[in-house]
Amino acid sequence: MTRRLTTLAALVLALGPAACSEVAPPVEYVEQVPAEKRSELTADGGGDGQGPAGGETLEFVAVDIDYSEAPQAAEPGEATFELVNEGATVHNVAIDEVSSTPIVEAQGGQTATGTTELEPGRYVYYCSIPGHREAGMEGRLEVSG
Fold first, then answer.
1. Is residue 4 situated within a structural domain?
2. Which of 7, 66, 125, 131 ranks highest by number of CB atoms within 10 Å?
3. CB-based burial of residue 67 (10 Å sphere; 0-12 exposed, 13-18 middle, 19+ buried)?
4. Residue-wise pLDDT tens for the chain (145 aa)?
5. What is the spatial distance between Cα 33 and Cα 77, in angstroms, rounded to a whole number?
């Protein structure tokens, strides 16, 4: 978390007031997302653990072909998935039982968010980029009920 705050502070100092305005996801990514999901995309899930609509924010950090940080538990209800991609290649977070498309996807060096509804249960999340899951980019998420 400290690393993210330091990076954010450096960005705000470098960009000045423009850094404080909301930034949309890259156009090329938004265009790949089905129209009914586009309104769920935001550049920032909020710093208070609350997503744009007030739900829980779950942070995933991707590096190379690994999630270096990922949640193991969540509450049921609306959740914002924040993907901080510290790697050089595109990564995403997918859960088959929750959505037929990835919940969130970020290009290398970027951060993106997406929202979804979580029901109580045990889920396997993974990166659906070809070869990434097979290389071990997956984990488990317990949604208490």
1. no
2. 125
3. buried
4. 444 434 434 433 444 444 433 333 443 443 344 433 433 443 333 344 444 445 899 999 999 999 999 999 999 999 999 999 999 999 999 999 999 999 999 999 999 999 999 999 999 999 999 999 999 999 999 999 8
5. 22
7 occurs within a structural domain: no
How far does Cα 116 stand from its chain's mean position? Answer: 11
Please name the residue that has the structure tokens 């954010």: 8
Provide the token pair at 143.
Answer: 């949604």
Domain total in the chain: 1
Q: Look at strands 77-85 and 66-69 and give their pairing.
A: unpaired
Here the CATH number for the domain that contains residue 30 is 2.60.40.420
Provide the β-strand partners of residue 114: 81
Residue 80 sits in which domain range? 24-143
